[in-house]
Design a protein that fits this description.
Elements lengths: L1 H19 L38 E7 L4 E8 L9 E7 L7 H11 L4 E4 L12 H13 L2 H14 L5 E11 L1 H11 L6 E5 L17 E6 L7 H13 L4 E6 L11 H8 L7 H15 L1
Parallel strand pairs: 3-4, 3-5, 5-6, 6-7, 7-8
Antiparallel strand pairs: 1-2, 2-4
Length: about 290
């Protein structure tokens, strides 16, 4: 069973790494300042200043699962930059800790650069965990049934495209760690949008899904990430090649797991685990995303 393989993989390796690697960032200030990132910022002049301290109050998009007794609530960040054209949208999927300040900060960051962003909650009721046992309990259903996240992401998608400020032809999705895995599973379902990107996410998932990959895929991986084995990469590339994917896979030299998370180094030292923030990989992967979004 696919879950047995994934659960074993996570229990043996990912559990410890996610204790620290997908750290629950409490401050948005530590996220890379977009001013120092290369690449064009949409809908902005060179004289405009953008920082992650820019506060954009999110609008809430939600739907209920009465059977499960849950409400799923996404946070929609609309840029303060006014424009005549509709906004491109980036759907952002959280780490296994839940929809916390880290992904909210990423939503703010990209919104301050001119992209509308939708930070989703896949767990329902805005559930979060500050410990690996709780996080595993929240994440477990998605490894038992990979289609679960696909169904939820599709519901968010169908709701947000009703917003007349959003350009339906310019919708992308990105995810971090657990979120990266869920985004790749959405791609495996045959979903067609502008692009999908995984930042240090697991590559195993619903590989038996027979749909062709219809969305350009970007995978940003740490070359020194001990949680993503070479055989996993080979199997993933073979799978996506067979499914005719337009895939760009980048390994960042020396980058460990959770390289985009500024608190990973501190937590890695605390738990004596091979995770660390890597500024070059963070900047490089973010710039690759910006180039792809143009």
């Amino acid at each position: 069973m696919i879950f047995a393989k994934i659960l074993s993989y996570f229990i043996v390796t990912i559990t410890l790494i996610l204790i620290s690697g997908c750290t629950n960032i409490k401050s948005q200030k530590s996220i890379s300042d977009p001013n120092i990132l290369d690449g064009e910022k949409p809908n902005m002049t060179q004289n405009e200043t953008v920082t992650t301290a820019t506060t954009i109050k999110p609008e809430l998009i939600n739907f209920a699962d009465n059977k499960a007794g849950k409400v799923f609530e996404g946070e929609l960040y609309i840029p303060k930059i006014k424009q005549a054209a509709k906004y491109p949208l980036i759907i952002i999927v959280h780490e296994w800790w839940g929809k916390n300040n880290y992904v909210q900060g990423r939503g703010q960051q990209l919104a301050s650069m001119g992209y509308a962003t939708l930070v989703v909650d896949l767990y329902g009721n805005n559930a979060e965990s500050d410990n690996p046992t709780g996080a595993m309990a929240l994440a477990k259903p998605f490894y038992e049934d990979p289609s679960k996240s696909t169904q939820l992401l599709e519901k968010y998608y169908q709701l947000v495209i009703k917003d007349n400020r959003i350009d339906k032809n310019q919708i992308s999705a990105i995810g971090y760690c657990f979120g990266g895995t869920q985004v790749l599973n959405w791609a495996r379902s045959g979903k067609s949008i502008k692009l999908m990107a995984s930042f240090h996410g697991g590559l195993q998932g619903d590989s038996k899904n027979s749909h062709l990959i219809r969305t350009p895929i970007y995978v940003f991986n740490g070359e020194a990430d001990q949680m993503v084995k070479n055989e996993d990469i080979e199997e993933f590339k073979k799978e996506f090649s067979a499914k005719k994917a337009n895939l760009k896979f980048i390994n960042y030299p020396g980058a460990l797991h959770a390289f985009s998370n500024p608190q990973a180094t501190e937590v890695g030292k605390k738990f004596n685990l091979p995770v660390a923030y890597n500024a070059a990989a963070d900047k490089g992967s973010f710039n690759e995303l910006l180039k792809a979004l143009r």
